[in-house]
């Protein structure tokens, strides 16, 4: 396990004024993250691989609880790896589509996906994990996010 966040404590994820942190709905506690037409990207986990692990990871798993309003909600949990924290060059980019991952709408559903990382990942690569609105016309909520690595 690299990190777990129920968005009650936002240490290491940014500041408390982040627009995507909301108390409108929550799976646990009082807060979750939300993307909607006014908030394109959620709070982002952002660390280098070297800060996350001492071994070279082969897989990264993201899990949590999603609240999806309907089949038109095009949001996804995104894993993006850049060559470095200051680089725009992408090493890896893949998402977990929330509509196809839940077995119903307007209720909290557990979702999980393991991403197979390319052999080219390196310790100085910047890892970002966030919820992206996509083209969702309605709010989509995510809570109790956990990120883990497998070497």
Give an overview of the whole structure.
With about 150 residues, the protein is mostly beta strands. It has a single domain (about 5-150), classed as Jelly Rolls, CATH 2.60.120. The chain has helices at about 50, 100, and strands at about 5, 20, 30-35, 45-50, 60-65, 75-80, 90-95, 110-115, 125-130, 140-150. The strands form two sheets. Strands 1, 2, 3, 5, 8 and 10 form a six-stranded antiparallel β-sheet that branches. A four-stranded antiparallel β-sheet has the order 4-9-6-7. The longest helix is centred in the middle third of the chain and has 4 residues, at about 50. It is globular and about 40 Å long. The termini are close together. The mean pLDDT is about 90. Pfam families: CBM_4_9.
């Amino acid at each position: 396990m690299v990190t777990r966040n129920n968005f009650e404590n936002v240490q290491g994820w940014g500041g408390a004024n982040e627009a995507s942190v909301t108390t409108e709905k929550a799976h646990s506690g009082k807060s979750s993250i939300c993307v909607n037409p006014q908030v394109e990207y959620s709070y982002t986990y952002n660390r280098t691989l070297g800060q996350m692990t001492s071994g070279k990871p082969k897989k990264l798993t993201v899990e949590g609880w999603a609240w999806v309003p309907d089949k038109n909600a095009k949001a996804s949990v995104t894993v993006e790896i850049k060559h470095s924290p200051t680089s725009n060059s992408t090493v890896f980019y893949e998402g977990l589509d929330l509509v196809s991952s839940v077995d119903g709408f307007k209720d909290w559903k557990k979702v999980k996906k393991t991403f197979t990382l390319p052999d080219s990942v390196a310790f100085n690569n910047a890892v970002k994990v966030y919820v992206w609105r996509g083209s969702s016309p309605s709010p989509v909520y995510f809570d109790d996010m956990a990120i883990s690595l497998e070497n």
